[in-house]
Design goal:
By secondary structure, the protein is an alpha/beta fold. The protein has 2 domains: about 5-85 and about 95-175, Rossmann fold (3-Layer(aba) Sandwich), CATH 3.40.50.620; about 180-300 and about 340-355, Argininosuccinate synthetase, chain A, domain 2, CATH 3.90.1260.10. It has 12 helices and 14 strands.
């Protein structure tokens, strides 16, 4: 008798992925391997092991891994070097986590001899695209199963009924309609659906989980410093920290001061608009600080070119193309720009805002001698400006004469 084929499932331990695990076994006849990633979502992930065991999955088929350092070092920090914000606002917290999960799904599939990988993303969202494009970029022959695009469990009632029929425990809080759905990692928490679907209605305060209401934040501002080396944060208030440790500490500061809330209507890659609420407390502080150190270390041409490239770079990540050659090409240019992005930024944290109030660098291009309103001791000859203006104004004057005389 032939051995059943294997599938590696991105498994959270929640109701949806528990149903998927059993469905893959019962309906597709597959041997299920589960993979649960700790990306700093703020929840204990070890219970996923017990839940997988309860469904008959053997220990050697259960993978639970702490990927927090890899996540921040190899995915978040490179993205932050680009100052990436999708549609000008979104710091891409969900988007940037998917390629790492896909990478491990493919690696575990190779390690265990699995034929398939599977995920719990729905057919309406962006995550299905991100998971699958990443997987195909890493293994062109991998096969992907997306149950939400296949099965007939099209309502929560049907999902729960199927779970009960197959002896899957349904937590009490899952029996009613969830007011919204969330996704979390060390960079952010996103919430969407139900109470957030009407873009005219303000986000209820109970939706926020990572930040205090800015109105309730401390009435006294807090000042911090972040040190950067070649574009990456290394130190907080003089204390050296690993990437994940630094972001964790910034998250706590952002939580305390109500920093990083975003109410956004965005354009999904699949074609529809969606309204979401994002909390990125540490990421917002870090992003502000990074731009602050770039202000004094990047040449105008390089800085402006980076800002031109950023929307394209952010869109590639949002659309699931982290492993594409064009993203890697842009990353090479961005990383080259960061060679002298080294120094210290001082920020003021106060009631929802992270404001850069100071910056210094051994590679600073800022010259007080050139910008001073006092005697510049010959550093700048103001008479030079006359020729500069005449040359730049020549074409405008020619145009104006032609149009006047036409």
């Amino acid at each position: 008798m032939a051995q059943p084929q294997k599938v590696v499932l991105a498994y959270s331990g929640g109701l949806d992925t528990s149903v998927i695990a059993k469905w893959l076994s019962v309906e597709r006849g597959l041997e299920v391997v589960t993979f649960t990633a700790d990306l700093g979502q703020g929840e204990e992930i070890e219970p996923a092991r017990a839940k997988a065991r309860a469904m008959g999955i053997p220990d050697d088929h259960i993978f639970i891994e702490d990927l927090r350092e890899e996540f921040v070092r190899d995915f978040v920090f490179p993205m932050m070097r680009a100052n990436a914000r999708y549609e000008g606002d979104y710091l891409l917290g969900t988007s940037i986590a998917r390629p790492l999960i896909s990478k491990r799904l493919v690696e575990i599939a190779h390690q265990t001899g699995a034929d398939f990988i599977a995920h719990g993303a729905t057919g309406k969202g962006n995550d299905q695209v991100r998971f699958e494009l990443s997987a195909y970029a890493l293994d062109p022959d991998i096969k992907v199963i997306a149950p939400w695009r296949e099965w007939d469990l099209t309502s929560r009632t049907a999902l729960i009924a199927w779970a009960e029929a197959h002896q899957i425990e349904v937590p009490r809080d899952k029996r009613g309609d969830s007011p919204f759905s969330t996704d979390a990692n060390l960079l952010h928490t996103s919430s969407e659906g139900k109470v957030l679907e009407n873009p005219w209605e303000e986000t209820p305060d109970y939706v926020y989980s990572r930040t205090v209401n800015p109105e309730d934040a401390p009435d006294v501002p807090e000042y911090i410093t972040i040190d950067f080396d070649k574009g990456d944060g290394t130190t907080l208030n003089g204390e050296a920290m690993s990437p994940a440790t630094l972001l964790t500490a910034l998250n706590e500061l952002g939580r305390k001061h109500g920093i990083g809330r975003l109410d956004l209507v965005e354009n999904r890659f699949v074609g529809m608009k969606s309204r979401g609420m994002y909390e990125t407390p540490g990421g917002e502080i870090y992003a502000r600080a990074h731009r602050g150190i770039e202000q004094i270390t990047l040449d105008r041409g390089a800085a402006h070119l980076k800002d031109e490239l950023m929307p394209r770079y952010a869109e590639l990540i949002y659309n699931g193309l982290w492993f594409s050659p064009e993203r890697e090409m842009l990353q090479a240019a961005i990383d080259h720009s960061q060679d002298k992005v080294t120094g210290t930024v001082r920020l003021k944290l106060y009631k929802g805002l992270a404001s850069v109030v100071g910056r210094k660098s051994p590679f600073s291009l800022y010259s007080e001698a050139h910008v001073t309103f006092e005697d510049d001791a010959g550093a700048y000859d103001q008479k030079d400006a006359e020729g500069f203006i005449k040359l730049n104004g020549l074409r405008l004057r020619l145009l104006a004469r032609r149009n006047r005389d036409a």
